Amino acid sequence: DAKTTQPPSMDCAEGRAANLPCNHSTISGNEYVYWYRQIHSQGPQYIIHGLKNNETNEMASLIITEDRKSSTLILPHATLRDTAVYYCIPLGGSNYKLTFGKGTLLTVNP
Amino acid sequence: NAGVTQTPKFQVLKTGQSMTLQCAQDMNHNSMYWYRQDPGMGLRLIYYSASEGTTDKGEVPNGYNVSRLNKREFSLRLESAAPSQTSVYFCASSDRDRVGRTEAFFGQGTRLTVV
């Protein structure tokens, strides 16, 4: 299964864009990149996923490099409620177990 | 639409006692999962079930058993609870949609303390 590397923590000012990086250099060709987040004490929440192309939804944008070895989750206008641990997870193909690494703790400051 | 329902929400056990954590989903999902989350740590997969009647070990299966008797329900059993099993337990379910998306939905968690 592909391994991921994320910074343990990041800070962002409220109203600014939060850019969360993830390295997944061993991702296989049929694995998607999924992003989830966990707000304190709650169950994780799906944010977005992508395979090759950049993706955008009402929560975030996902930029995947052309070689697919890394991606960046973008929260365009971070709010205090976006303070959470964000997980980058390769999933798909023969990798069907949803496993979480350590993630990045994003703290949005007023 | 309830989604994923876990019972109980809180439980205190004495060392050596047994109990079963219940999880049910009403989304007709094939896959179900059990995780544990220790304070300040990420989620670790205990067991996984790809479909009714099948189960597979995750990262930390020791000390647990699971049962997937039907599509809706996936239970986690602690045969002889130990203080090291004090944790928050999350159940989740997911399925692959027509465009290949796998979105998992989580329950609210069961806070278990073993004394």
Structure explained in plain terms:
- The complex is a heterodimer of chains A (110) and B (115).
- With 110 residues, chain A is an all-beta fold.
- Helices cover 0% and strands 45% of the residues of chain A.
- In chain A, the strands form 2 sheets. Chain A has a 5-stranded mixed sheet, with no helix packed on it.
- Chain A is globular, with a radius of gyration of 13 Å.
- The termini of chain A are far apart.
- The model of chain A has no long low-confidence stretch (mean pLDDT 92).
- Chain B has 115 residues and is mainly β.
- Chain B has no helices and 11 strands.
- In chain B, the strands form 2 sheets. In chain B, strands 2, 4, 5, 6, 9, 10 and 11 form a 7-stranded mixed sheet that branches. In chain B, strands 1-3-8-7 form a 4-stranded antiparallel sheet, with no helix packed on it.
- The N and C termini of chain B lie far apart (36 Å).
- The mean pLDDT of chain B is 92.
- Helix content of chain B is 0%, strand content 50%.
- Chain B is globular and about 45 Å long.
- Classes of the chains: A mainly beta (110), B mainly beta (115).
- Chains A and B meet through β3, β4 and β8 of A and β4, β5, β9 and β10 of B.
Structural class of chain B: mainly beta
Give the low-pLDDT segments of chain A.
Answer: none
Radius of gyration of chain B: 14 Å
Order of secondary-structure elements of chain B: EEEEEEEEEEE
Query: How many helical elements of chain A?
Result: 0
Give the overall silhouette of chain B: globular
> What global shape of chain A is seen?
globular
Low-confidence segments of chain B, given as residue ranges, are none
Distance between the termini of chain B: 36 Å
What's the story with the biggest beta sheet of chain A?
A: 5 strands, mixed
Encode the helix/strand succession of chain A as letters: EEEEEEEEE
Q: How much strand content do the residues of chain A show?
A: over 45%
Mean of residue pLDDT of chain A? 92
Count of helical regions of chain B: 0
> Pairing-aware structural class of the strands and helices of chain A?
mainly beta
Question: What percentage of amino acids of chain B are in beta strands?
Answer: over 45%
Largest sheet of chain B: 7 strands, mixed
Task: Tell me the span between the first and last alpha carbons of chain A.
Answer: 38 Å
**Rounded average pLDDT of chain B:** 92
Biggest interface, CB < 8 A? A-B, 23 and 27 residues
